[in-house]
Design brief:
alpha/beta, Peroxisomal Thiolase, Chain A, domain 1, 2 domains, ten-stranded mixed beta sheet, 33% helix, globular, lipid biosynthesis, lipid metabolism, transferase, acyltransferase, Beta-ketoacyl_synthase
Length: 413
């Protein structure tokens, strides 16, 4: 099978509006959480989130485009434009029939849906809906917009598997390039669900932290006092390219996307399998697909959402998959800084894995005051401060409601 490498990166997320800002914030252990500004959250159980900062859509799009794009699609366009520029691709010199877009979103245009239904409910019953309502709302539209902007006529679709979505986009892209179905694919994910419906819905599930008195410390994976995740928003984008194609044009290569694994818990609507069976299978499948040994993995960017059940289940899964090597690897949970970007989480965390490989820096798990007594102290959880370490292989996990598990492995080139 053909090899697949990463030749371009882009992001807009709660820690930065480009890769340089994001990597600097990761290294310095910055929290992206703060009181919600998108709407009046004073009556909600959770009144904070990890919002994208200093974002003005009019700086990126003209007024007509802003009306066409839900916020999640705007983020997709911003991040993908950065990644394509970073890759140095000359669109006049590539085969556009062999260039595709596989873009993920767990929820899609929930902001548009909320606004349109709210407007109707407040009206006199006369159906007045925007002609852009459906095209703005559907989850696949971000992939469509990216392909239309750049003329990419290859594979084009959206992966939707809750919080595992953008790892599934990376895995599908990996396989399509391996099989010769494309030479270049723009892959990633975006999400923008910080609105009354998004916050209210997750509050009703008791999934979100309610640490309103200290938002910046609310996301605290592996801490004894964790009480739920913090919602984030944004996007992460990768230019994935067949290795020989990238070499032929002299592209810089950040890493190789070496393998991917998938599985299902087949257990519960929202809770992970307590023993981490599905998560362990996902990691083992990725290791097998990458053609490496478990002891080759140097770093794991965990799903690590800061939920009481999820953090423990994932560490159980790591022990099942790696045995004693579980204690030799570096592990961290960057959601402690970015919050949980839902369907975009894997993309933004995959970028953190790329940083670990390229800079030799393990991003920290911040906000840990007292480690959960149920957690084995032999784990290297990179608590509160980044550390230096050579990373040849980095693994990134994401797991979603419905029992969806996905894992990718990046390799130093």
């Amino acid at each position: 099978m053909r090899r697949v490498v990463v030749t371009g990166l882009g992001t807009i997320n709660p820690l930065g509006n480009n890769i340089a800002e994001y990597f600097a914030a990761l290294e310095n252990g910055v929290s992206g959480a703060a009181p919600i500004t998108h709407f009046d959250a004073s009556k909600f159980k959770t009144q904070f989130a990890c919002e994208v900062k200093d974002y003005d859509a009019n700086k990126y799009f003209d007024r007509k485009e802003v009306k066409k794009y839900d916020r999640f699609a705007q983020f997709a366009m911003v991040a993908s434009e950065q990644a394509i520029a970073d890759s140095g691709l000359d669109l006049e010199k590539i085969d556009l029939d062999q260039a595709g877009v596989i873009w993920a979103s767990g929820i899609g245009g929930i902001e548009t849906f909320y606004q349109e239904v709210d407007n109707f409910a407040k009206g006199d019953g006369t159906p007045r809906f925007s002609p852009f309502f459906i095209p703005k709302m559907i989850s696949d539209i971000a992939a469509g917009h990216i392909s239309m902007k750049y003329g990419f006529r290859g594979p084009n679709y959206c992966t939707v598997s809750a919080c595992a979505s953008s790892n599934h986009a990376l895995i599908d892209s990996l396989n399509l390039i391996r099989w010769g179905k494309a030479d270049i694919i723009i892959a990633g994910g975006s999400e923008a669900a910080i609105n009354p419906a998004g916050i209210g819905g997750f509050n009703a599930m008791q999934a979100l932290s309610t640490r309103n008195d200290s938002p910046s410390t609310a996301s605290r994976p592996f801490d004894a006092g964790r009480d739920g995740f913090v919602m984030g928003e944004g996007a992460g984008a990768f230019v994935l390219e067949e290795y020989e194609h990238a070499k032929a044009r002299g592209a810089k290569i950040y890493a190789e996307l070496a393998g991917g694994g998938m599985s299902a818990d087949a257990y519960h609507l929202t809770a992970p399998h307590p023993e981490g069976l599905g998560a362990a299978n996902s990691m083992l499948n990725a290791i097998k697909d990458a053609g490496v040994n478990s002891f080759d993995i140097d770093y794991i960017n965990t799903h690590g959402t800061s939920t009481p059940l999820g953090d423990l289940a994932e560490l159980n899964a790591i022990v099942k998959a790696f045995g004693d090597h579980a204690y030799a690897m570096s592990i961290s949970a960057t959601k402690s800084m970015t919050g949980h970007l839902l369907g975009a989480a894997a993309a933004v965390e995959g970028l953190a894995a790329i940083m670990a490989i390229n800079k030799g820096i393990i991003p920290p798990t911040i906000n840990n005051e007292v480690i959960d007594p149920a957690i084995d102290t032999r784990f290297d959880l990179t608590l509160n401060k980044a550390k230096r370490r050579e990373v040849n292989y980095a693994l990134s996990n994401t797991f979603g409601f419905g029992g969806h598990n996905s894992t990718v492995i990046f390799k130093k080139v």
